[in-house]
Design a protein that fits this description.
It is a single chain. This protein has 5 helices and 39 strands. The protein is mainly beta. It has 3 domains: 343 residues, no CATH class; 199 residues, Sandwich (Immunoglobulin-like), CATH 2.60.40.1190; 96 residues. The protein is globular. The protein starts with 5 loop residues before the first helix and ends with a strand.
Length: 697
Amino acid sequence: MPGRPALLGMFVLQIRARAWKLQIITALAAVLIVTVPAPAESQSTPGRPTVEVVRMGETDRITLDGRLDELVWARAVPATNFMQVDPDNGQPATEQTEVRIAISANALYLGVTCFDSDPSRISAFQRRRDEFLGSDDKFRWAIDTFLDARTGYFFEMNPQGSMADALIGSAGQNRAWDGIWNGRVGHTDKGWTLEVEIPFRTMNFDPNSDTWGINFDRTVIRKNETSIWTGWARNQGLQRMTNAGRVTGIRDVTQGHGLDIKPYGLLVSESFPGRNRPDIHTDREAGIDFFYNPTPGIRANLTLNTDFAQTEVDQRQVNLTRFSLFFPERRDFFLDGANFFDFQAGTGLQQNNAGPDQVIPFFSRRIGLSDSGTPQKIDFGTKVTGQMGAQDVGLLHVRTGEDDEAGIAGDDFTVLRLKRRMLRQSFIGALYTRRAARVDGADASQTIGIDMNLSTSTFRGSQNLGLSLWALRAERPTTSSHNGAYGLFLNYPNDRWNGRLTAREVQRDFVPDVGFVTRRGFRRVSPALTFAPRPDGHPYIRRFEFGTELDVTADLDNTLLERALQLTVFNVQFHSGDNFEVQVTPSYERLDAPFRISPGITLPLGAEYNFTRVRFNGSTTNRRMLAVNGNVESGGFYSGTRRVAGLGFSARLRPGYLVSLNGEWNRVELDEGSFTTRLYRLVTEAQFNPRVALVNN
């Protein structure tokens, strides 16, 4: 039996912090958050492209129709000279783009002309808001309102008028954010145009600065061409705000009262025949949400008698692993401003697919569920998020209701997140969470943590490099001293070479009551490296990819539990958007607990398994009328074998109308027994316009 692997000993992070040490470190972090000076950002960095806004006069009016025929657009000097990111990196775009910007006292306007040498071949299918536009022509832009090179607002539109937006933060995109803005598109014999209005109350900003960061890019899908205004190196991109240009002249603007009110009413009628209850049972509910900007950089939310009836349901999945599936948050109240609560232990892991051992100290889906998993009503919730100088602040308090019939006491949840920006792209932060049952004599559980991120986009010229360190401690009434979690994440995310190293330790009694942890009592190290060459001038192939990722997990005595080496033997991406991949994964597992894989089939404690699996993946581009994706997987699986087949079809009947069918089949044959799983999913969409859609999934 494998014992204490030398490889794990070389990489694993072993931190023996006692409770008092973490408290001291947390206190020091809080002091640093307040006292570390913020980096100064130049208002006009030499060499950056700049576009100046045109101030609208009292008689100027912009009618959002996508036609750009107002006089104010004729006065604006456009941003031009886009350069290709793909396929010919650094060359001028083959289709020209012009961006004009105007402002009134209350809103920012964009007037964009996307010239096209063959307008009949413009591709635009999606109409629904917040849809993925991977198969469409599109225009995107990102705005850094605080000029801090870290955060911002992301927007995109396609020639059908589909609109999408997101928040940009240290953890990447938060696409759940829905800002208040509007846009319309037009079509001419020279291409397509769009007009956009973004009210200033939609964005937080520094009222003392007249300069923001901004960048634009455009995709012509039939050419698989992406061009950008500034920062055309493949290691950079639109959402890396350190590469943004500048928009100047933003003066004398206002957010208005900064108050939005969203009431709701709900009438539910249910029938319970044969259950000794009235035939018809009717419930009436009402509630209200308030959104207020006390300052241009701070947003406050209040929700009363919260209703989540419109929340999108989770998609069904087949789980043949030993660990719980992770389902993301979908409730709007928690999604708004969620990026201000991100913690490095969760973000690095989720973004880089580091396996099942997730450590998320604040997971908002814990709020509204009892310890037994029973849903709880939320009586009220308050939240404050935003920026105060060089600090990012997130404060949340939610109270859940009591249910005497179910024997559930209400809970009070409190979360505080602070981050202090330092250097050019780095920060240090602290997190505190608390859950307290409203029962006499009940002790609260709480989690405290610190994290630090050091990042640069100028390593060896234009390479990206980042290092994250974090430590957590969870206190419960019955917790022992083994209640910590620690880790690091070293990341080198670049186009040709992409590498990372994740290491973490989670102790046996680390139980964050407002967090998500799939397992405890382990150490894990995960190095990975990918090489992605691009053949010059090839008529069909855009990119190859070859990679390896090693995951090694041991218990706290360094006894090996799992080892998996995922080899991407071959991955090819075509100019057309089609893709094909072959992966081989040799694995070792030692079960530290019995594993009930299927009803009547349990793998025993202490059993050891060595097996190898081979997987083939392929997909065609979604811009075709009929797109196909599929995968086949076969090989060993614990004491036997497992075969997997998946197939999906997407038919785009006409712009805005989609029918897709996906199926997955698993056949597992073990010494302990055999079973088969099947999962099918049918989705139909009728997208009438960006504001009205009928979806069945």
